[in-house]
Write a structure and sequence with these properties.
heterodimer, A: 110 residues, mainly beta, six-stranded mixed sheet, five-stranded antiparallel sheet, 55% strand, globular, B: 120 residues, 0% helix
Chain lengths: 110, 120
């Protein structure tokens, strides 16, 4: 089982819709989770992090964490074409390293 | 300007060459990473250094040799690479990442801009 797993997609949504990105993790000791966005040819940039169960909102982005289910998600409201990118979920795992999922490719079409 | 700087940004090398990638972070972090990202593939963790000590070698071939002389600098020495090693090599740093710190805290990683490596 992969330590951090995402649906690779691609996920395609129309402009203005809600994009939902999902991630599961295997290490119950992981308590902080990060969402990165990576544009093609660029390095990943941090957009959200979450430590507590429940929802965390930042502008159009909402991160959701369910530790019992070992599940973390990212919702993007009012999706824009500029949101088209690969979204990476990451968590510190049992050996003190930050492990990334394989990424979900999101395309927002006009 | 990113707090993590990688040089060079682009590198073309032959299979018999020896080259080095450099990473420098100005964020006061204690953990540094090398990742490899091939076309249309996920990020692959290569090496992890915590407090200048290598804590992870993710089954990387010996033609890749990391060096971490201090907590601000990380190198990746390359020799006798293969064309399939062509990829984007990303350096990242994060705050304190001790084994017992796998829980919370500010453990987010900050990435450099990467070195686009082409092996011919």
């Amino acid at each position: 089982q992969k330590e951090v797993e995402q649906n690779s997609g691609p996920l395609s949504v129309p402009e203005g819709a809600i994009a939902s990105l999902n991630c599961t993790y295997s290490d119950r000791g992981s308590q902080s989770f990060f969402w990165y966005r990576q544009y093609s040819g660029k390095s990943p940039e941090l957009i959200m992090f979450i430590y507590s169960n429940g929802d965390k909102e930042d502008g159009r982005f909402t991160a959701q964490l369910n530790k019992a289910s070992q599940y973390v998600s990212l919702l993007i409201r009012d999706s824009q074409p500029s949101d088209s990118a690969t979204y990476l979920c990451a968590a510190p795992t049992s050996y003190g390293k930050l492990t990334f999922g394989q990424g979900t490719i999101l395309t927002v079409h006009p | 300007e990113t707090g993590v700087t990688q040089t060079p940004r682009h590198l073309v090398m032959g299979m018999t060459n020896k080259k080095s990638l450099k990473c420098e972070q100005h964020l006061g972090h204690n953990a540094m990473y090398w990742y490899k990202q091939s076309a249309k593939k996920p990020l692959e963790l290569m090496f992890v250094y915590n407090f200048k000590e290598q804590t992870e070698n993710n089954s990387v071939p010996s033609r890749f040799s990391p060096e971490c002389p201090n907590s601000s600098h990380l190198f990746l020495h390359l020799h006798t690479l293969q064309p399939e090693d062509s990829a984007l090599y990303l350096c990242a740093s994060s705050p304190l990442l001790r084994r017992q710190d796998r829980a919370g805290g500010n453990t987010e990683a900050f990435f450099g801009q990467g070195t686009r490596l082409t092996v011919v």
